[in-house]
Design a protein that fits this description.
Layout: H1 3-15, E1 21-27, H2 39-42, E2 46-47, E3 53-54, H3 56-65, E4 74-76, H4 77-89, H5 100-117, E5 122-127, H6 137-149, E6 157-161, H7 174-185, E7 192-197, H8 203-213, E8 220-224, H9 232-238, H10 241-249, H11 259-271, E9 275-282, E10 286-287, E11 290-291, H12 297-310, E12 313-320, H13 321-325, H14 330-333, E13 339-342, H15 351-363, E14 368-371, H16 373-385, E15 393-394, E16 404-408, H17 410-417, E17 426-434, H18 439-446, E18 457-464, E19 466-468, H19 473-478, E20 482-487, E21 493-497, E22 506-509, H20 524-540
Parallel strand pairs: 1-4, 1-5, 6-7, 7-8, 9-12, 9-13, 13-14, 14-22, 15-16
Antiparallel strand pairs: 2-3, 10-11, 16-19, 17-18, 17-20, 20-21, 21-22
Helix pairs in contact: 1-3, 1-9, 4-5, 5-6, 11-12, 12-20, 15-16, 18-20
């Protein structure tokens, strides 16, 4: 539907006018967070600086608003129920029946708490799911109470799909009329309708929506398909959505500053003339008969950001590692690509296929970037095929390996023994010290990635449980692998690489640089990687 992009775009437009804006995402599911949800089921969880494993929309907020979003910006119904039950057990409700108003009060409390923490002028709350779902009824009730009962200054923006069936050739407004009816039945009258669809809605259909949905025709806003989600803010700005919202909130309009965003769109348009194809070797690609990019959403975005900055459109070749395990040759599946990435992953399925792809990238000198699991499996591949440790593996895949080059540290062993999976990984931002004179040092220094250049410290986001086994570090160093970054606190291996005279770009991180990349500030690692891919492509052609 694009509610997250619509929310982030409205936030950007209000922020560009000098207002302090705080976004909050309300999810319907009973999970406490998104950390244990299958990425095929609900997309790539977005990892925040404070360790929150959130919905992808939180990532969209960060990218559009160009600032960190934290735990208080992410609410799930699981969190709400957990807190209400906890308070009931603590006798905080003084023996009352605990009913729906207690739940809606907790939702409202959290929304207000987010606003207070960030001293926000305006808070934008995105309600997950769709109108008419029983799962999110309590969120809608909280919104109604906030506006009608508590007399808060609330504006309701309804994002609705307006399809244009190909056999008819005209936008159909009936689905929107029905969804608005659902809202009205819950006591909510939308102030705006944002029409998502393949095409813009014309004046005649805006007037019909106004008449049947009880909305001002000037408050029916077009949001048609565009070449990039980054164009949506300007689409909404052309229709003066932000000033109209401010009028209803009783706040003055101010001059907007969208110069940097306009420049970004110019770069995006120019980059379409030069293409680079990069292979993503993973296993979270398909749901049923369909493939999707949401499983690796943050990675795809980070590649786009770096490509736009350097004048390239990144195209991706999705390589299912299980196909390699079933007999297809990695060399054939990777033929012609300018780079190879092995991203985040869990468990043994498809791992041997990933290791085969990593070996091809290393021996054929194709630019390689390993992210989290992609670093761990690069270590396994190197141990097997360069150091001669044929049985080398990660304990995650083979608990009985005689060479556990990737293992669990003590705290993680204890967590797994308790079956404490949720929120027990190494999560959030951890500082890493970069070794002087390495490729990592050059990357962060060249692209202003250091948070402390004198001490060579970077702060990166982590989401993993297994670690490099330091008992093997000397053996790896003797075999030519470079350990170029270690965590400041526990001295854990964070970055490995090969010398440039051995490989043009062979670089892998235990952390996730993709979660810190933004359209206006691409991540240094991806800038360096895309540059290496462009140089490799030019050389082989």
């Amino acid at each position: 539907m694009g509610k997250g992009v619509s929310t982030a775009s409205i936030g950007l437009l209000l922020q560009s006018r000098g207002y302090t804006v705080t976004p909050v995402k309300c999810e319907n599911y009973l999970n406490v967070d998104a950390g244990l949800i299958n990425p095929i089921e609900h997309g790539d969880p977005f990892l925040c600086d404070d360790g929150t494993e959130a919905d992808m929309d939180i990532g969209t907020y960060e990218k559009f608003l160009n600032r960190n979003v934290m735990r208080h910006n992410f609410i799930t119904m699981g969190q709400i129920y957990l807190e209400v039950v906890k308070r009931e057990r603590n006798f905080d409700y003084n023996g009352e029946d605990v009913e729906m108003p207690h739940v809606t009060d907790e939702i409202i409390r959290r929304i207000n708490e987010a606003a207070k923490k960030e001293k926000a002028d305006i808070i934008i709350v995105e309600l997950g799911g769709t109108a008419g779902e029983y799962l999110n009824v309590l969120y809608y009730e909280a919104s109604r109470v906030l506006k009608i009962v508590k007399k808060a200054s609330v504006v309701h923006v309804h994002v609705s799909y307006v399809p244009t069936p190909s056999h008819l050739g005209e936008p159909k407004t009936k689905p929107t009329q029905l969804s608005v009816k659902f809202l009205q039945s819950m006591g909510i009258q939308p102030d705006f309708i944002v029409c998502r669809g393949e095409k813009s809605v014309d004046r005649r259909r805006r007037e019909r929506l106004a008449m049947f949905c009880n909305v001002d025709a000037e408050h029916v806003i077009n949001n048609p398909d565009v070449n990039t989600p980054c164009a949506v803010p300007l689409t909404l700005e052309e229709q003066q959505l932000a000033p109209k919202i401010l009028t209803l909130l009783g706040l003055p309009d101010r001059k907007s500053d969208l110069g940097k965003w306009n420049n970004l769109l110019t770069r995006i348009s120019a980059s379409s003339r030069n293409k680079i194809e990069i292979a993503i070797v993973g296993k979270y690609f398909a749901t049923g008969d369909y493939e999707l990019r949401d499983s690796y959403a943050a990675l795809m975005d980070a590649l786009d950001h770096a490509g736009w900055q350097q004048g390239f459109k990144i195209t991706t070749r999705w390589v299912n590692s299980e196909k390699i395990e079933k007999g297809q040759k990695a060399e054939n599946l990777l033929d012609g690509v300018a780079g190879v990435i092995v991203p985040i992953g869990w468990g043994p399925r498809g791992v041997e296929g990933m290791i085969s792809a990593i070996r091809v990238a290393r021996t054929a000198k194709i630019p390689y970037l390993g992210l989290c699991y992609g670093m761990q499996l690069a270590v396994v591949e190197y141990a097997r095929h360069v150091m001669g440790l044929a049985d080398a593996n990660t304990l995650e895949c083979n608990p009985h390996t005689s060479h556990p080059v990737i293992h669990l540290i003590k705290g993680q062993k204890e967590a797994i023994a308790r079956r404490a999976y949720g929120g027990t990984m190494r999560l959030g931002r951890w500082d890493c010290k970069i070794k002087s004179g390495t490729q990592a040092d050059n990357i962060y220094d060249k692209f202003s990635g250091y948070i402390n250049s004198q001490k060579r410290i970077v702060g990166e986001r982590h989401r993993h449980r297994f670690e490099f086994n330091d008992a093997y570090s000397d053996s790896f160093l003797k075999a030519g692998l470079i350990i170029s970054g270690r965590s400041v606190i526990e001295n854990l291996v964070e970055i490995i690489e090969l010398p440039k005279n051995i490989h043009p770009f062979y670089f892998a991180t235990q952390y996730h640089p993709e979660y810190r990349s933004r359209p206006l500030i691409p991540h240094p690692v991806f800038l360096a990687y895309v540059k290496a891919c462009a140089e490799y492509q030019a050389m082989v052609k």
